[in-house]
Amino acid sequence: MRGHAIERLRIELRSRPQLVGLCAFVLGLLACRAPLAAVAALAVAAGAVGAGCGGRHVGLLAAAAVAVGAGAGAARVAALDAPLERLHPGRRIDALLELRERPRPGRFGWSAAARILSGTARGAGVLVRSPGRVPRGLASRGDRAWAAGLLQPLPGGPGGEGYARHLRATGVGAVLAAESLRAAPRGRGPAALVDALRRRAERALARGLSPDHAALAAGMVLGEDDRIAPEARDDFRRSGLAHLIAVSGQNVALLGALALPMLSAAGLGLRARSVALLALIGVYVPLAGAGPPLQRAGVMGAAGLLALLAGRAASRWYALALAAAVTLLVDPRAAAEPGWQLSFAAVAGMLALVAPLARALGALPRPVADGLAATLAASLATAPLIAHHFGTLPAWSLAANLLALPAVAPAMWLGMGQIALAAVAPEGGPAGALAASVETLLGRAAGVPLDWLEQVARWFAAAPGATLAVSLPSPAAVVAAYAAIAGACAAAARCAARLEPWAHAVAAEWRRLPRAERAAARAAACVAVAAAVWQATGPAAPPRALTVSFLDVGQGDATLIQDPGGAAVLFDGGPPEARVALKLRRLGVRRLSAVVATHQSRDHHGGLAEVLRSFPVDLFLDNGDGTTDPTFVALEREADRLGVPRVLARAGQRLRAGRLDIRILSPRPRPPGPPPEDPNVRAVVAVVSEGGFDLMLSADAESPSLLPLRLPRVDAMKVPHHGSADPGLPRLLERLRPKVAAIEVGAGNPYGHPRPSTLAALARRVPHVYRTDRDGTVRLTVRDGRMIVSTAR
Fold this sequence. Notes:
Oligomer: single chain
Structural class: alpha/beta
Shape: globular
Distance between the termini: 41 Å
Strand order of the largest sheet: 14-13-12-11-10-9-22-23
Radius of gyration: 30 Å
């Protein structure tokens, strides 16, 4: 299989010496930052390969192309980096900026990459950061503002070094801590026209869709993923569908597949259709952001169309090499970006492997075989790079992509139809109103495939073993992984060649079967595969005994109590990035009898909004305690929007959930006035009981808040406040007398939790102490009056 593909490439290289030179030129561009000795060695190697493909003159051409590519790349990098050298951290600037992306909100304000248009640093890229809300007039890419502020170095340290590399690779050389921003008039020219068309496209894509679906459509069609909810983006990544929310060559292919029948129906000839498609690609690529994957697809599509216009046979390998050369000439630094690497690796893998894989899958229906072959080829070609850059691989990527396949084209085409109407229709008057109505109808139709894609992503993201921890830390490890894949493909090809006579005989017997029997066999196979996937990815069954799960959510709290009758109660949801909703689904939760927000703190309430959206919830016990924190207020509004009954938590309440008895010990009603500065002291304190088992949960309330309460003896407890220093903890433990204590804490947290004094007090008074930073999720099961503890690690 792999051998046939390599042989075809070798034949093409021998018949096209210009392809050899172009590939050598790309190698030079890739090596433009390498030492001179490395470039020389690469030129010699390319010369040897070229001589083997086409003789001495081709070898000389290849060697020279490497040298020219390296020189051109070095010159281009120097030109791109020159403005960045004029950015001096610690210096104040006052300049005109143009946004290169939509502002992205964050925990402490917003940020956006921008280009400086005036002053000594003109042409340099900066990351603008500003507290508060995004100013009016700075809503989208292309908006301009006069900004004054202090230049700061790019993020560093263990958490920021990778992000800093990404920023430098995209032409950003410093952070601008903006102190004042004043909107300025937009620029003019082609770029301004594209920005205006993009704004109209964004408005069109929002018509007829919910906010979540509109954000997904903008990501799929325009590459604007900033409005996609973080949990949805994470679902697409974990399920292996992340490529759908980042524009790529698939978009260009679908654009052509949509436009060609329409152009043919309009009576246009071959040349006119090719010119029209070239124009469409020329508009769509900058409209969708012109990122490296889209540049690659645009160049490949344009190369094929130009070859068609010239009456020459198109070479897909030549088009791929040409796309690499063009994108690297635009910015050689793009080669360091994972997006560039993954895009070209995926296409190369498909060019090499799709045809033989599709032949091997010939017994399947043609669309299924082609889709499966393309997904498998792209997955094999990109797996080493994904493992290198991200340290994980999506385990269910193949199944997720197959299920998503029928919905991708309709969602894209309907979105492109909305954009096309927005581009040609006037914004006002009867014609504009009619266009808006049609766009709304298209949006409502697009909601169906978009909802299916969301469901598929959510389903496989929550599946057991959704991601595999696979790390390839060095380039050498990546090369070794590709060598192993190539060896496996070659072995598979040899095995297929030996089995070919038997395969032909089986295929002949298959074709002799009546059509009805073949259809029935295919249907049975599909049912069997679907059943196997369901068995492997479906939600777990709820536990058969009382189970308490101290969930590993990093530096945060989330505790789940499940009784054998199916009742489930969740105390807190950890920070939003912990995705506690996925953990609940894996633990067999299908409905929650109660969700308790113990107090306002991001590491406690941050993940609860997703929980409310993911499960039916019978009661939301709310202890916002009058907070004005925007994220907690948004959580309360989400509960109200979903129709979840919301009750304020107060001491003395008693809740029943199945066999669970929940007694709320704190907080008591507070006097009128603003909420306390420290919400920890008034966090919910509760005792959860079933039969003879008692569990103490106190969120972040420490001994000064707990000791005045009437506390019973308990069997187990969650240690208060992630194990922070608490001088009164020994007295508290003397009163509670727990046999098991669990500390919910994140590894390497900046607070030093759990503190040594707390660990010492626990070691003296509690027989069994667990902590989620070392043990992972801790599960305590009560069976026949005995407590059984298991840990994830």
